[in-house]
Amino acid sequence: xxxxxxxxxxxSNGWSAYxxxxxxxxxxxxxxxxxxxxxxxxxxxxxxxxxxxxxxxxEPLTQVMRMAIPA
Length: 71
Hints:
Distance between the termini: 38 Å
Helix content: 25-40%
Number of strands: 3
Order of helices and strands: EEEH
């Protein structure tokens, strides 16, 4: 099992998300919960398609960290 970084961004009408190590994969929906579900399903489908096409599966190299900065 691999753990891929997921980036979620609030938009003017909901949420969008992508996995940096899986180029071309992005999702969007009105709610965070649905966007999270769509991204998980998208990652699974993306990797399955890559396997079926005989492509190498990218390693999950990206790390995401929140940093507290006085603003």
